[in-house]
Design a protein that fits this description.
By secondary structure, the protein is α+β, with helices and mostly antiparallel strands. It folds into 5 domains: 33-133, PAS domain (Beta-Lactamase); 138-306, GAF domain (Beta-Lactamase), CATH 3.30.450.40; 322-427, Beta-Lactamase, CATH 3.30.450.20; 438-597, Alpha-Beta Plaits; 673-871, Alpha-Beta Barrel (TIM Barrel). The strands form 6 sheets. It has an 8-stranded mixed beta barrel with strand order 24-25-27-28-29-30-31-32, surrounded by 4 helices. Strands 8-7-6-11-10-9 form a 6-stranded antiparallel beta sheet. α17 runs antiparallel to α18 (529-543). The radius of gyration is 44 Å and the shape is elongated. The model is unreliable at 1-14, 308-320 and 873-877 (pLDDT under 50). This is Diguanylate cyclase/phosphodiesterase. Residues 608-862 form the EAL domain. Residues 382-434 form the PAC domain.
């Protein structure tokens, strides 16, 4: 094949004397070029197609040559291509068009094709096309274009239908094989209504309008019901479409992929669906498109429902033209195209015969170019980003592909460079970078940039061995401004406050807005806490300064929590959480102040919460048991009952006594559950003993907190009702912590109500409360238990002996029974009997024991002879 220059305004002929040699160069270039290249005649039939072109359309060269490739172009694209071809053939002017093709696996590929005309010696006209696959670029641009267009519509207050139409139209425009619909879930949550779907047959959209969601209700009804993506590649065979496949067949629908449209809280708002006319499975790119589109739809729908203004920034990437440089083997430029001249500002005469290094910007090192040439000579091609310099000195970025054109012996004859100016893309990347790291409203750093700076500050602090402070600020009263003046005024107020806060910081400090009216401040390079106190006070002052907006004066205050690293030696996330906790303390303390995080207090709270959780788990796992300590009449030897004592059979720590866990949970709701479990377990044991012929009253300890619950009597009645075979008279309740009783009248009423149920009461640990006499007078308890702390030392301590004697006297005066606990020896018992106290319990009688040991103990128990002798019950010697 050969050609000749036909037009005065065309490129100058290559300085090659032998046409066959030039033809060889061009053929070699076509075969090696990484970009698809083709030549077709005036009727659109392919004459030449390189390997890259065949690979793009996934058709062999043999099947392509002599034919059009219209079957690889979507029908709606054919008219555009025909017009472009005719324009180039008629005018001889180059034309760049964007085209959608069917590539491998019938996946749509978006390409930029540059069409040029040449005329041979017989005056026949041909079209040469060079193609650049820009699918990924267009996908990125589609995401940003869709985001920008839709957000613009949303913020401009356009109707929801118009916004949804725009969402699907952009998707369909860039994906001709797709048909899209959006269904909106009714407020009632039971049915889907048509949002948009203009590319689908009207009879189909009418039929599914109002469909009830549910499992197996097509793709969309199921997706809305399960809140999960539903991919149906073949409608006619999938069970979800059993009731709709006839409708789908009539509408010529073969596949349907549906994605739930979710609110910011994760609730289903509707569904976004992509249909295909034939069986089709989505690619990763398709799934990303589905997610992104559903996300945009969620913004539109939430805006419509909540009437809130959502501001999103988006960038639009535009494609750049390609510049071509052809050099000889020594890298001397022998040809450039007009696009390169337009990009660089150089004319052809200024670059021909020169080395491409005239474009170098100086931004790259010599090693960069050395590596580039090593790759080029090794692999035959190189692709990468280069910063070059225009004639006017402007530095600009290019995406460059360089290919080595070799002859039959493998010797390099030429180098061909194809370059694309990506200045606008780089600019937009910078904007996206800004969006990714800064709050759109206040222009302060956002969470992402905050995390980076905080981690850097921690490393710097460790290296410099100094401190940094993290402060969490929340505005007090901002909600009222939003409620009274609206969100637009609220946004303006936040901007004004943010500017003031930023001005209050030191150089090098960071303030970030993390959402709403919440801010986080990083103060680095601190030698002592007072260094940051000055900043905190300025922040409080700035936050409370009056702000004038729309002829109104508005004012708030701030609550700040602060923690200092490395004193608070945790990671970045924990520092923020600790500062947040401290902020709530400041808010509870009256607002308009700051509070420093207290690590010891936090550890105590965490330890308390862990203890509560451990007890809760122990209840669930049935790790609690009751041990029983007998109570006897020392004068007669009679066993009058047992006291139920709680124990925790921990799987790792063994048997844990109650004093190690009950005081921790006292006053918490879990203590009530434990208390009820003890009563229920005691009633169960009473029932079990009764079935074995053992009649033993059981006393159970109850806390003042439990007794003072409004529903104590009804809860006790429920527990008794669960054990109808147990006489309530066998249950005795020992009141602990009588000093914690607040309303003796209410407690007395509760006790009398329990008496009516048949349950009796005892006052435990009598003598230790500051108002024991008051309780003895007012509370209807038949039994007083002398605290073991007095009984244990009564033989050696005259004060304790006097207390025991006094309690016994009080019991007689008030006509109450009295029992002593802590009886550890025969001598204790003898002394008590002499004082008039004959009821007792303690290690000198029996230690607390599991329930299965009680019956054996009953058969072996005998009262001490010294006690019986005092009562006159001992047999004569």
């Amino acid at each position: 094949m050969s050609y000749k220059q036909q037009e005065n305004n065309g490129p100058a002929a290559l300085p090659v004397k032998d046409p066959e040699e030039l033809e060889g160069y061009l053929n070699a270039f076509l075969d090696i070029s990484a970009d698809p290249v083709f030549i077709k005649d005036g009727e659109g039939k392919l004459l030449v197609a390189n390997n890259a072109f065949c690979e793009l359309v996934n058709v062999s060269r043999k099947k392509l040559i002599g034919k059009t490739f219209s079957n690889k172009i979507y029908p709606q694209e054919l008219v555009k291509l025909a017009h472009s071809d005719q324009y180039v053939l008629d005018t001889g002017e180059d034309k760049v068009i964007e085209q959608a093709l069917q590539g491998k696996g019938n996946q749509a590929r978006v390409v930029l094709a540059k069409l040029s005309r040449f005329i041979d010696r017989n005056n026949r006209r041909f079209i040469v096309g060079v193609i650049r696959d820009v699918t990924k670029r267009r996908q990125n641009e589609l995401r940003e274009t869709t985001r920008s267009e839709v957000l613009e519509l949303i913020t401009s207050g356009e109707p929801l239908k118009k916004v949804l139409d725009a969402i699907v139209s952009v998707v369909e425009l860039n994906n001709p094989e797709m048909m899209c619909s959006i269904l909106i879930l009714e407020d009632s949550g039971g049915h889907l209504r048509n949002g948009t779907g203009t590319s689908l047959p009207k009879f189909y959209t009418d039929a599914i309008d109002g469909v009830e969601i549910g499992m197996g209700v097509g793709s969309c009804g199921t997706a809305a019901f399960t809140n999960e993506r539903v991919i149906v590649a073949d409608i006619q065979t999938h069970p979800y479409w059993e009731n709709f496949k006839a409708l789908a067949e009539r509408a010529n629908l073969g596949a349907c992929w549906s994605e739930p449209i979710r609110s910011t809280q994760g609730a289903v708002l509707g569904t976004f669906a992509i249909y295909h006319s034939s069986i089709n499975n989505p690619s990763d790119t398709d799934l990303a498109l589905i997610e992104q589109t559903a996300s945009l739809a969620s913004i539109a729908i939430e805006k419509n429902r909540s009437e809130e203004t959502l501001k999103r920034a988006a960038s639009v990437f535009t494609h750049a033209n390609e510049g071509i440089i052809i050099t000889d083997a020594s890298a001397t430029i022998i040809e450039v195209n007009d696009t390169l001249c337009r990009i660089t500002g150089y004319s052809k005469s200024e670059v021909l015969g020169k080395n491409p290094r005239i474009l170098q910007s100086g931004r790259h090192s010599a090693q960069f170019y050395k590596n580039m040439w090593n790759t080029l000579n090794t692999d035959g091609h190189w692709r990468g980003e280069i910063w070059n310099c225009r004639k006017d000195g402007e530095v600009y970025p290019e995406m460059v592909t360089i290919s080595a054109v070799k002859d039959a012996e493998g010797q390099v004859q030429h180098y061909v460079s194809l370059s694309t100016d990506i200045s606008e893309i780089k600019l937009n990347e910078g904007k996206l970078e800004r969006i990714a790291h800064y709050d759109l409203l206040t222009n302060l750093p956002n969470r992402v940039l905050l995390a980076k700076r905080l981690n850097q500050a921690i490393k710097h602090s460790q290296l410099q061995q100094n401190s940094l402070a993290v402060a969490f600020m929340d505005l007090d009263g901002f909600k009222a401004i939003n409620d009274n003046y609206g969100h637009d005024i609220g946004d303006q107020f936040l901007v004004e406050v943010s500017n003031g806060l930023k001005a209050s910081l030191r150089a090098g400090d960071t303030i970030a807005r993390i959402g709403g009216d919440e801010f986080i401040i990083i103060m680095a390079n601190l030698d002592e806490f007072s260094d940051c106190e000055h900043v905190l006070n300025r922040l409080l002052k700035s936050a409370s300064a009056p702000v004038n907006i729309a002829e109104a004066v508005m004012q708030v205050s701030a609550s700040i929590g602060v923690t200092v690293f490395p004193q608070d030696n945790v990671d970045a996330d924990q520092l923020i959480r600790h500062a947040d906790q401290a902020m709530y303390v400041a808010k509870q303390g009256g607002k308009n102040r700051y509070h420093q995080f207290d690590l010891e207090q936090d550890n105590a709270i965490n330890s308390y919460n862990k203890s509560i959780d451990n007890v809760r788990v122990a209840l669930d796992r049935k790790e609690f048991v009751l041990h029983y300590q007998p109570k006897v009449n020392m004068r007669s030897g009679e066993v009058i009952g047992v006291e139920a004592l709680l124990r925790w059979e921990h799987p790792e720590s063994g048997l844990i006594p109650p004093l190690e866990f009950l005081p921790v949970i006292e006053g918490h709701g879990i203590s009530l559950k434990v208390g009820e479990w003890v009563i229920d377990a005691a009633l169960t044991q009473i029932s079990h003993w009764q079935r074995r012929g053992i009649s033993l009253p059981v006393s159970v300890n109850i806390s003042a907190h439990q007794l003072q619950q409004d529903n104590f009597t009804s809860r006790l009645q429920t527990l008794l009702a669960a054990h109808p075979d147990v006489d309530p008279g066998y249950l005795e309740l020992e009141i602990l912590e009588t000093s914690a009783l607040q309303d003796t009248f209410q407690v007395s009423s509760t006790m009398n109500a329990c008496h009516d149920l048949g349950v009796s009461f005892a006052l435990d640990d009598f003598g230790t409360g500051y108002s024991s006499l008051t309780y003895l007078k007012r509370l209807p308890a038949y039994l007083i238990k002398i605290d073991q702390s007095f009984v244990r030392d009564m033989l050696d301590d005259t004060d304790d002996l006097a207390i025991v004697e006094g309690v016994v006297g009080l019991a007689k005066a008030f006509k109450r029974e009295v029992i002593a606990e802590g009886v550890e020896s025969v001598e204790h018992g003898v002394a008590l009997i002499h004082l008039g106290c004959v009821l007792a319990q303690g290690y000198g009688i029996a230690k607390p024991m599991p329930a299965n040991q009680v019956s054996q103990w009953l058969t072996t128990w005998k009262a001490n002879e010294s006690w019986l002798a005092l009562s006159g019950n001992r047999e004569p010697a």
